[in-house]
Amino acid sequence: MNLVETEFLFCILSSFFLFHSLAKISEEWKRKDLLFQWTAITALGFIFTESLKKWGIQSVIWNTDSIFGYITKSNLLLFLSYTSLEERIFTLKIYRRFFVSIFLYVFWVGVLFGIQFFQTTILVQDNTLILPFAISLGAFVWAREMFWNFEENKESKLGDDSFRFIYLCFLPATFLVLSPWKADWSFYKQVANLLIYGISSHVGFQLVTKFKKEIVPAESEMGIWIGAIAFSTCLGTEIVVVLPLSILSGIFGRLLYSYLSSLSWSEPGLRGVISFLYPSVLGIFLPFLLEEPNGWLHAPYVLLGVQTLYFLSFYLVACLSFGIILLNKQK
């Protein structure tokens, strides 16, 4: 399978991100508004990108001869942009809503370039490029929960979580479209490992749910994201060692969910922090536990500082960006 075929495959998979977002919206006008924004932003982004190429300004991030590669990345950016605020975006007036959507899209483009900078300049222990997205989105969700509460009821209806389990397994894998192996057959082995990690953490998450005999909305989504993100920094480690730890990460994730729920967090806030911020913190430090010292990119204390800087950089920039969004919040 060549690079273009791989990008076509992930173009199809990435569409599930947008479907997943639209499926959660109950009101028709909101879905139509969101589809219009996504279409407009994708088209404008493509025109802008092609214009830069004509002027000789290129980046390895966007340098692809396949339109499928561009659409995949755009789908990923649109999903992240919407998930940053979710239905809070509809509490804004029309012109502010479009401005904030553009701002979020540009922010996530900036995250892409930030990833490239860290990967090529500082050399961090993150071989899949997933972690910065999880850190930034987790920081957005945390700040959103702290400073921008829903005006409506915080409760979320339980959807067809079991039905969505199958395609949810593939959502984390879509991030690997940015990975350095996607033109190689070993890429598919890494995708398979990522799926296994996600499913095993989901098992741990669901074990606690069964024991507590509670119904948790979107438990498949949260359970799968935990393992897929947390252990993405340790791909290549012996799978027999990783699987028990992945199950434990799901168990602790479920316990953290119960704790935050007792603090009256909203359902979107719980889902975002458990799915993204919690596993990204694990992913920062897991290489110290699972990687052989001869595979570390730096000396131990230097690596600790680099990994911490890696986390704080995206976390603080995401919080700063959310502060800018709050300035445009409808009074």
From TrEMBL:
The keyword Transmembrane applies. It comes from the Bacteria. Keywords: Membrane, Transmembrane, Transmembrane helix. The keyword Ligase does not apply. The chain crosses the membrane at residues 6-23, 97-118, 130-150, 162-181, 224-257, 269-289, 309-327. This is Acyltransferase.
